[in-house]
Amino acid sequence: MTAGLTTALGILAAATVLGLWWRRRDGRLRPSTGPVADLTDLGVRPGTPVTLLQFSSAFCAPCRVTSRVCAEVAARFEGVEHIEVDAEAHLADVRRLDIWRTPTVLVVDRGGAIVYRATGTPGKAQVIAAIAALLPAGAAR
């Protein structure tokens, strides 16, 4: 009986730690250091100061929240575009860009480099902080 209880408590502790780690990491914009990718087939226009490229799927509730956050940020700042891509319709791009789940947001600079990446729903303040360095002063509308 005590061996079973010890095992159950160990599994519960491990699951709790994993859950807390996952929650802390989810939606967080992390710097991305990869080569410049050709994203024009996904609608990214070269020269656009910042593009929020969001990969979504049809039945993803967090995708709708993420879409709203990105659209609000794009509307607030001049030079920021938000493009939502159906991950299922662009599987080759999903594989090429190492997208593992939806929503995933890629912050792309004017040169086509993916500067930040978030898996999950990032907060509006976090998105604004990430794009601030990529925009000229006074870009807020």
Characterise this structure.
The chain is α+β, with helices and mostly antiparallel strands. The protein has one domain (28-132): Glutaredoxin. 39% of the residues lie in helices and 20% in strands. The protein is built from 4 helices and 5 strands. Strands 1-5-4-2-3 form a 5-stranded mixed beta sheet, with helices on one face. Strand 4 (104-109) and strand 5 form a beta hairpin.
Question: What is the CATH topology classification name?
Answer: Glutaredoxin
Over all CA atoms, what is the radius of gyration?
18 Å
Distance between the ends: 65 Å
Low-confidence stretches: none
Q: Summarize the helix and strand pattern as letters.
A: HEEHEHEEH
How would you classify the helix and strand content by structural class? alpha+beta
The level-1 CATH class: Alpha Beta
Count of individual beta strands:
5
CATH architecture: 3-Layer(aba) Sandwich
What percent of residues are in strands? 15-25%
Give average pLDDT, whole number: 86
Tally of separate helices: 4
**Major sheet summary line:** 5 strands, mixed
Notable traits:
single chain, 141 residues, alpha+beta, Glutaredoxin, five-stranded mixed β-sheet, 4 helices
Write the layout of secondary structure elements.
Blueprint (H helix, E strand, L loop, with lengths): L1 H24 L4 E2 L18 E7 L4 H16 L3 E7 L4 H6 L7 E6 L4 E6 L4 H9 L9
Parallel strand pairs: 2-3
Antiparallel strand pairs: 1-5, 2-4, 4-5
